[in-house]
Amino acid sequence: MMDKPDQLIKSLDRALNVLEKIVQADRALGVTELSNSLGMHKSSVYRLLATLAYRGYVKQDKNSGYRVGIRLLELSNLVLGKLELRREIKPLLEELMEKSNETIHLGIIDNGEAVYIDKVEPSQTIRMYSSVGKRIPLYCTGIGKVLLAFTAPAEMEKVIARIELKAFTPSTITDQLKFKAHLVEIREKGYALDNVEHEEGVRCVAGPIFDHQGNLTAAFSISGPVMRMTEERLPETIELVKEYTGKMSAVLGYIANR
C-alpha cells in the first residue's frame, strides 16, 4: 500500500474504511460492530453510513445492518468493462479452461497485492473459492509470484521489503532469502507453482502475460484441488501454461525473441 499522503482528507478516509469493511463482510454489519472494529465513534459511523446510503454505496437491511449497495456494483462493472486486457484475453481463458477442465484466473498487481480481474471455471463438483476483485498475497500464490518475479528488480525489492512473509500453510515460504532465490527460479523457468502454499488442498500453476513492448501486463493461473491437480499431472499443466503465455502475449502484440 502506498504511503499516507500529507493532504489526506480524514473524513473521506474514514468513509472508505467503513465501505471496505462492509464489502469484505459476508453478512450485514451494524453500527456498533463497525464502530468497535474500526475504533470510531458510533455517531461518526452513523453519519458516514447515512451519506454512503444516500449515494447508493450501501443499503440498510430489515435488521438495521448494512450491506453493499447497487451503486458500488454498478461502478465495479463499469471498471471491469473498461479493462481492455480482460476483453482481449477472455476467449483464451475460456479455451484454457476447456483444455484443463480447471479454474482459470487472470490477475494484475496493485499496491503490493495481486487482484483477480477475471475468472473462468468448469462445472466441477468441487469449485474454487475465489472471485473477481479478490486480493491475494504476492508471495504464496501462483499469480502473485509470477507478477513479482517479472517486475523490474528495483521495484521488486521495494515490494518484498514491505511484505510480511507469514505462513498460510506449512508449505508457505517464509524465509526472505529463500523467497528471493525462488523468484529468480520462476523468472528462469517462465512459470510459478503454488504448491499448497496459500490454501490447504489447492495447487496451481501460473504464467506471465507480456505486452507488445515485452513488459509484464498480467498473469494467469490454472488452479484446482490437489485430488485433481496431482503431482503426476503437473508436467502437462506446466506445458499448457507455457503454451498460453505465448498465446495470450501474442494477442497483446508480443513477439518472442525479437
Fraction of residues in H or I helices: 40-55%
Uncertain ranges = none
Cα-atom radius of gyration: 20 Å
Order of helices and strands: HHHEEHHEEEHHHEEEH
Count every helix, treating DSSP H or I runs of 4 or more residues as helices. Answer: 9
Strand order of the main beta sheet, please? 5-4-3-8-7-6
Average of the residue pLDDT scores? 86
Task: Explain what the structure shows.
- The structure is a single chain.
- This protein is an alpha+beta fold and 258 residues long.
- It folds into two domains: 10-75, Arc Repressor Mutant, subunit A; 83-251, GAF domain (Beta-Lactamase, 2-Layer Sandwich), CATH 3.30.450.
- 45% of the residues lie in helices and 18% in strands.
- The strands form two sheets. The chain has a six-stranded antiparallel β-sheet with strand order 5-4-3-8-7-6, sandwiched between helices. The protein has a two-stranded antiparallel ribbon with strand order 1-2.
- A hairpin with a 5-residue loop joins β1 (58-60) and β2.
- α5 (84-100) packs antiparallel against α9.
- It is globular, with a radius of gyration of 20 Å.
Features:
single chain, 258 residues, alpha+beta, Arc Repressor Mutant, subunit A, Beta-Lactamase, 2 domains, six-stranded antiparallel sheet, two-stranded antiparallel sheet
Please give the structural blueprint.
Blueprint (H helix, E strand, L loop, with lengths): L9 H15 L6 H8 L3 H13 L3 E3 L5 E3 L1 H13 L1 H17 L2 E8 L2 E8 L14 E2 L5 H8 L3 H10 L13 H14 L2 E4 L6 E9 L5 E10 L8 H18 L7
Antiparallel strand pairs: 1-2, 3-4, 3-8, 4-5, 6-7, 7-8
Helix pairs in contact: 1-3, 2-3, 5-9, 6-8
